């Protein structure tokens, strides 16, 4: 990268950081202050590598206090596990260098495997345990008696940084995850109202699709914040369950609104009043300032609309040519109203938590998805890359190659489970390269001439504050974080700074080469295909639905919704940048929520003794056929008779007995058929 390009890149980055919010400034100043406090404390304790204390502050820095505590907690666990592993491996195998690096590479592979099966911040802790053993073990190469001292020193430096970051994030103008959840949920409700208003009035398809993606993304953020908030304050525990349930209801409402938009009926005397009332309600909700300050009026209106939609239409009223279709759309409208009402109640539960009494619960007949093939690939790749570079180091005896080995281990493990590890690693490289000239000017030119902590603050703060502002900007967080970490690593602040460019450039070169080698590994060795991972998640969602059809035990609605939203959260980062194909996958995922809820409704109806036996038999036959289609039909293959059977059963059930219960069964069959026709490839077995 030439200086002109470097300058242009930096100017572009600064342009994207204009007009930071008050919250961004608080985060930036708090992070830099915590870093300086950690460095001062490391100086006072005479730690060997004080820069690690300050670097840790920037590594765990997050805008929300709970996120800092969560990342810091798992960083501490990962560091302790890695330190213990380094002591054990070095003590046992330290006399044989080839065996030592092989065992360390295998350890990194194991930790990468575990990390790939977990979620952040747990995944971060597992990956850290792997490469921490390398960071501690390699400097003790040939001197195994030093490994305990190195492990203790590193743990002390990490703990110091975590404590400084955690205390400042919690005490200095904190932004709490519990407050952020309420704020984001409000925004989600208003976005849902805007989406529904557009869907009910025939709004622009592209605009609705963009808002649909945003809502699905926000559910993912809500789920992550829920975990952070529980670590942030034990008092949030009673509100954790409402958050999970509310996210499921949010997805249900979104799916119902999409279905009403996709299957809008011609003018119908029964449908028009309900649809108009829903359109008026969501329009008012989206447009009225402070609409969510008091949810009671909205809940009352939604109750009234849902009750009206569930009323069996009078046969004398014009319902068009398809009475079952009318009942189906009314059912979807009632489901939307009920789901939105539950979301509003979830908001109230977050604002005014109550203690829940214990209750007995059954194990859901559903399983959590773990991507074992993807995790195995990541583990083999990280271990192989680390071992090959370590072999080069041992063969050439190039001392600085130890840094290259460490960076290959860090990058190939830490970014392995990302949907696009090459892009993430390249951003890390750009941030590292950008940090190099700044670290040279400050660490090799300015501070040796003007030593002292006061001059350090004067030189470093004007660089780190804009960097921290970049870390608060989602668009630049990766590059800015890499810049901050590697700026401090290259700078290597000590109380006595000296001009010594040789080791500086040798260390910098080993770091840059290590990152580039890791990127090469991601490209050439078992390259990741996000669609393979996405297909495995979609397959798991189809198996969930098949399990709902066939399993003897039927989970609660809330259990299914929680699992379904979790699946969608796993799917979204894999497909969100894939254009129409990705939108179809996400749309199918949300539609699967609707299908699952209708299956549960059919299962419940089949156990109702008031339902005629032939109707119960029809339901059982349909569910068996649906499970068979979900498990065995491949994309592009013609539909089996399942969809046609659903419509046939719906019509025959309505003809035989036009009561409220049987018409509801017919409506559920029609809803399932419509969803499968809207997303035919999603509800088909992939050929892989």
UniProtKB/TrEMBL annotation:
Keyword 4Fe-4S in the entry? The reply is no
Which Pfam families does UniProt cross-reference here? FUSC
Per UniProt, the keywords (alphabetical) are: Cell membrane, Membrane, Transmembrane, Transmembrane helix, Transport
**What GO cellular component entries does it have?**
plasma membrane
Bilayer-crossing residues are 27-45, 51-69, 76-93, 99-118, 125-146, 158-177, 379-395, 401-417, 429-447, 453-469, 476-497, 503-526
Q: Does the keyword DNA repair apply?
A: no
In which compartments does the protein localize?
A: Cell membrane
MF annotations from Gene Ontology: transmembrane transporter activity
| Annotated InterPro entries | PHBA_efflux_AaeB/fusaric-R
Q: How does it sit in the membrane?
A: Multi-pass membrane protein
Q: What is this protein called?
A: FUSC family protein
Tell me what organism the protein belongs to.
Mesorhizobium intechi
């Amino acid at each position: 990268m030439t200086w002109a390009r470097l300058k242009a890149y930096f100017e572009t980055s600064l342009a994207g950081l204009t007009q930071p919010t008050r919250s961004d400034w608080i985060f930036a100043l708090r992070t830099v202050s915590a870093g300086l406090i950690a460095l001062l404390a490391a100086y006072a304790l005479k730690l060997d590598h004080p820069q690690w204390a300050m670097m840790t502050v920037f590594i765990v820095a997050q805008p929300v206090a709970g996120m800092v505590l969560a990342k810091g907690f798992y960083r501490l666990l990962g560091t302790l596990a890695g330190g213990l592993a380094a002591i054990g491996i070095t003590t046992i195998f330290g006399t044989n260098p080839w065996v030592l690096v092989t065992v360390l590479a295998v350890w990194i592979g194991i930790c990468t495997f575990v990390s790939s099966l977990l979620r952040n911040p747990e995944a971060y802790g597992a990956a850290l345990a792997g490469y921490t053993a390398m960071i501690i073990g390699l400097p003790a190469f040939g001197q195994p008696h030093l490994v305990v001292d190195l492990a203790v020193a590193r743990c002390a430096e990490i703990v110091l940084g975590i404590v400084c970051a955690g205390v400042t994030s919690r005490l200095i103008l904190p932004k709490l995850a519990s407050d952020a959840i309420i704020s984001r949920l409000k925004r989600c409700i208003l976005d849902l109202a805007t989406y529904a208003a557009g869907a009910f009035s025939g709004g622009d398809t592209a605009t609705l699709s963009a808002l649909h993606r945003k809502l699905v993304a926000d559910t993912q953020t809500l789920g992550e914040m829920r975990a952070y908030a529980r670590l942030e304050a034990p008092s949030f525990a009673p509100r954790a369950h409402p958050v999970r349930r509310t996210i499921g209801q949010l997805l249900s409402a979104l799916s119902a609104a999409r279905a009403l938009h996709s299957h809008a009926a011609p003018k119908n005397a029964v449908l028009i009043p309900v649809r108009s009332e829903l359109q008026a309600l969501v329009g008012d909700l989206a447009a009225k300032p402070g609409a969510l300050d008091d949810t009671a009026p909205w809940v009352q209106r939604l109750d009234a609309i849902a009750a009206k939609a569930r009323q069996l239409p009078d046969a004398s009223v014009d319902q068009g040519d398809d009475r079952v279709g009318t009942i189906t759309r009314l059912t979807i409208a009632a489901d939307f109203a009920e789901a939105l009402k539950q979301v509003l109640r979830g908001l109230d539960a977050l604002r005014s938590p109550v203690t829940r009494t214990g209750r007995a619960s059954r194990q859901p007949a559903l399983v959590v998805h773990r991507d074992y093939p993807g995790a195995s690939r990541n583990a083999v790749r990280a271990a192989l890359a680390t071992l090959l570079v370590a072999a080069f180091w041992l063969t050439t005896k190039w001392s600085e190659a130890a840094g290259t080995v460490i960076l290959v281990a860090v990058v190939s493990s830490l970014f392995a489970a990302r949907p696009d590890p090459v892009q993430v690693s390249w951003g890390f490289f750009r941030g590292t390269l950008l940090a190099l000239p700044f670290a040279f000017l400050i660490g090799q030119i300015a501070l040796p001439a003007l030593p002292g902590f006061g001059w350090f603050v004067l030189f470093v703060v004007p660089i780190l504050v804009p960097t921290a502002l970049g870390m608060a900007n989602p668009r630049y967080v990766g590059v800015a974080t890499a810049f901050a970490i590697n700026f401090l690593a290259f700078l290597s602040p000590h109380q006595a700074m000296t001009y010594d460019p040789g080791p500086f450039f040798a260390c910098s070169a080993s770091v840059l080469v290590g990152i580039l080698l890791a990127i090469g590994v991601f490209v050439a060795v078992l390259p990741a295909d996000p669609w393979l991972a996405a297909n495995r998640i979609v397959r798991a969602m189809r198996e969930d639905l098949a399990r709902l059809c066939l399993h003897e035990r039927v989970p609660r609605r809330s259990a299914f919704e929680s699992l379904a939203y979790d699946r969608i959260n796993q799917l979204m980062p894999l497909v969100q940048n894939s254009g129409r194909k990705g939108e179809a996958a996400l749309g199918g995922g949300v539609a699967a929520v609707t299908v699952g809820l209708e299956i549960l409704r059919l299962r419940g109806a089949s156990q109702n003794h008031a339902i005629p036996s032939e109707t119960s038999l029809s339901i059982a036959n349909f569910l068996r056929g649906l499970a068979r289609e979900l498990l065995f039909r491949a994309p592009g293959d013609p539909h089996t008779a399942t969809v046609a059977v659903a419509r046939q059963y719906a019509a025959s059930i309505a003809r035989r007995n036009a009561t409220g219960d049987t018409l509801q069964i017919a409506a559920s069959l029609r809803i399932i058929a419509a969803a499968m026709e809207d997303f035919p490839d999603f509800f088909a077995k992939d050929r892989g």
